[in-house]
């Protein structure tokens, strides 16, 4: 028997509903329950794959190749819930499924309507999101109560809960208690109004989680309880965290959220939560023993969410090494025009992330050249790995015309090129090489050494590939192709094996890093950068004065 928790949001967006949802999953998992997590998004895009990172932050790729919401990244980092294509549904995906059925004649001549056809389809998606054997399914509803576009989702979850026996479904509503500095107090009225919005559609929240800057007083709790019709012990404060979002599960446990949930779901018999591993993690994040600075050269550096998983993965690795990492975010275009040596001076490592069709490619190549020539640890991911291959081809292997046909379609030396099956594709959504593929690592290579295995599964999201016509020439010049997808003989990993860390990967390892289980490549990269910093400090070089980024700092 699966129980369902629906998490809605009120008052304003960006309250950290994804993190609260992920934290609920952690608390239940720690009680020995099998948890699934799902996000229902009210926008019309079928998935975020076609949205610009400026619109929606990074596109998070699941193991089974879905391009999905970045909140799924929080879910995977926090919990062990199985995350895949059924973990995210949007208005667009729901409507396209209904329209497909209508065209096929599945509705037997009926008028197709929002209620019941769209709402039924949403309920089917909710069932698909909770695999067999799930004890508790946690479902986050995107958007804010009162939005026009979330209405069908709210109606669907109301119907869904109604169809279940008592104690098998519950609603958790996340709201904001704004602090008015003029009057020096926190206000409960917006919370009352957003609960009122839910009640209008027939949803009575069982638990209210209130985001606040300052502690909630007993009087406020009583008032919220009375006006919102929620018992006082079910009004939970979620105070702004001091250093890291990884404190949220600890705070919510302390405030009694998990006890409130198990009481409403009849799961009181489950063991008490032990969060020692999270306590230890937060302790390491709060009191780092060392500092380092990593440069990230990309197109979307103004927006932290655009490379969310990468920053997180770096911070996980740093926390694992009891260090704190700060980021020097450098625009690739600035690097193309300016002086890379000046922009990058003093950093301990360079990370070049993924990208698409960028004018910034030349800037990335110049940054990589600087790192290679100055023996600075360098990590290229996807487009970043392609840029590393081009840099090496141009400046070491004697192929000055080396380019990617993505940026220069008619170039003389297409070191990065499309495979014939990708060249035929004309639709943008969902047509890349997506999801996990096996990669065989060369025995004795740096890559195999970092992973400690020679077969790994990593997630992809790209169209262009390393062109095998240039492999021998680049290898002859000293570059090692140390990982391949054997079935199609595609190069997945390149490295300079004599370096401590100079490695490019065609895939996205950042999606598999967790705060409690840092990814081996990020661990090795940050380790090499730290070693370099130690050596430099030994030589009396100034260390960076940048304020370090904590693992899970709220951006
Ligand atoms: N634009 C490149 C490609 O499609 C790289 C994609 C990426 O970095 N995710 O191959």
Give an overview of the whole structure.
The chain is of the alpha/beta class and 555 residues long. The protein has 2 domains: 251 residues, Rossmann fold (3-Layer(aba) Sandwich), CATH 3.40.50.300; 253 residues, Class I glutamine amidotransferase (GATase) domain (Rossmann fold, 3-Layer(aba) Sandwich), CATH 3.40.50.880. The protein is built from 20 helices and 23 strands. The strands form 5 sheets. Strands 13-12-14-15-23-22-21-18-19 form a 9-stranded mixed β-sheet, sandwiched between helices. A 7-stranded parallel β-sheet has the order 5-2-6-1-7-10-11, with helices on both faces. Strands 16-17-20 form a 3-stranded mixed β-sheet. Helix 1 runs parallel beside helix 3, helix 1 crosses helix 9 and helix 15 packs across helix 16. The longest helix has 19 residues. The mean pLDDT is 93.
């Amino acid at each position: 028997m699966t129980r369902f928790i629906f998490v809605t949001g009120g008052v304003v967006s960006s309250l950290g509903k994804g993190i609260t949802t992920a934290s609920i999953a952690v608390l239940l998992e720690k009680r020995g329950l099998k948890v699934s997590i799902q996000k229902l998004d009210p926008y019309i895009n079928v998935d975020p794959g076609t949205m610009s990172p400026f619109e929606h932050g990074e596109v998070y790729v699941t193991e089974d190749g879905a391009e999905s919401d970045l909140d799924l990244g929080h879910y995977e980092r926090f919990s062990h819930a199985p995350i895949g294509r059924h973990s995210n549904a949007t208005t667009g995906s729901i409507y396209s499924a209904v329209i497909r059925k209508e065209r096929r004649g599945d509705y037997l001549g009926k008028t197709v309507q929002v209620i019941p056809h769209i709402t039924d389809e949403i309920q089917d998606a909710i069932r698909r999101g909770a695999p067999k054997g799930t004890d508790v399914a946690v479902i986050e509803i995107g958007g804010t109560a009162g939005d026009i576009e979330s209405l069908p989702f709210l109606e669907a979850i109301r119907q869904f809960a109604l169809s279940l026996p008592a104690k098998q479904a519950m609603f958790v509503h996340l709201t904001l208690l704004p602090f008015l500095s003029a009057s020096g107090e926190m206000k409960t009225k917006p919370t009352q109004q957003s609960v009122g919005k839910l009640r209008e559609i027939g949803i009575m929240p069982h638990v209210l989680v209130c985001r606040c800057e300052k502690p909630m007083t007993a009087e406020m709790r009583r008032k919220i309880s009375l006006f919102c019709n929620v018992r006082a012990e079910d009004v939970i404060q979620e105070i702004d965290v001091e250093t890291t979002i990884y404190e949220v599960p600890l705070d919510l446990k302390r405030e009694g959220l998990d006890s409130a949930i198990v009481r409403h779901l009849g799961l009181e018999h489950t063991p008490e939560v032990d969060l020692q591993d999270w306590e230890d993690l937060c302790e390491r994040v709060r009191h780092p023993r060392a500092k380092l600075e990593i440069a990230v050269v990309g197109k979307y550096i103004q927006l932290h969410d655009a490379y969310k998983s990468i920053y997180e993965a770096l911070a996980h690795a740093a926390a694992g090494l009891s260090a704190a990492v700060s980021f020097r975010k450098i625009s690739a275009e600035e690097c193309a025009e300016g002086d890379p040596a000046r922009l990058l001076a003093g950093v301990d490592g360079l990370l070049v992330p993924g990208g698409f069709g960028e004018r910034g490619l030349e800037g990335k190549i110049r940054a990589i050249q600087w790192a290679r020539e100055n023996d600075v640890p360098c990590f290229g991911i996807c487009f970043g790995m392609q840029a590393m291959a081009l840099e090496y081809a141009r400046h070491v292997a004697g192929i000055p015309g080396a380019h990617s046909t993505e940026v220069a379609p008619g170039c003389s030396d297409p070191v990065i090129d499309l495979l014939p099956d990708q060249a035929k594709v004309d639709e943008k959504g969902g047509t890349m090489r997506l999801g996990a593929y096996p990669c065989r690592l060369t025995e004795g290579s740096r890559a195999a050494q970092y992973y400690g295995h020679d077969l790994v599964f990593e997630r992809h999201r790209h169209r262009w590939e390393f062109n095998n016509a240039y492999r021998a020439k680049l290898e002859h010049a000293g570059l090692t192709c140390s990982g391949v997808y054997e079935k199609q003989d595609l190069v997945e990993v390149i490295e300079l094996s004599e370096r401590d860390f100079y490695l490019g990967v065609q895939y996205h390892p950042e999606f598999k890093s967790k705060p409690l289980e840092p990814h081996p490549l990020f661990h090795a990269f940050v380790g090499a950068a730290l070693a370099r910093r130690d050596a430099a400090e030994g030589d009396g070089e100034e260390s960076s004065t940048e304020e370090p980024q904590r693992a899970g700092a709220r951006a």
